[in-house]
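Q: Convert this sequence to structure tokens.
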Amino acid sequence: MTDEPRYVISDITIRNDGDWYSGQSRIENKSILLYFKKNLYSDINGLFILNQFGLKTEKVYIKANGPVLKVTGIREDKFILDNEEVLDIALKEIVMDSQERFYIVIEKLKAWGILTRGAVDDLRDRLTREGDIYFWNKRPIRRMKEIPWFFG
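A:
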């Protein structure tokens, strides 16, 4: 039987460009970032990193001011995320912000992920443009002035 989880409000923030920070310091250690991203969840209180130490559990709440995950590529009709997850692209909606950056919803997190340049390059054969309107799999891409990074 495990104890009730301990709740921690951290100083970890995801900035608008998708970089992760602890206070004012950018988190650059790739193994730490991967651990955080693989253990990222959401509940009614927000986004949190779930840490487990034997029977002890800790929910470390973070603040998202930008995309929580990155789509690094597209392979065989799957989005490849930077937390090593793979998502089916069949029914995914892609949206675009005012700077023409592309995003998808990460449903389990109730948050947005950004498509990296490499993912957009992989997407090119499914992406068309007529005037100011982009189309993804022949569906118009919705433009959003402001992305609600967490909407849970």
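The first helix runs from residue 30 to 38.
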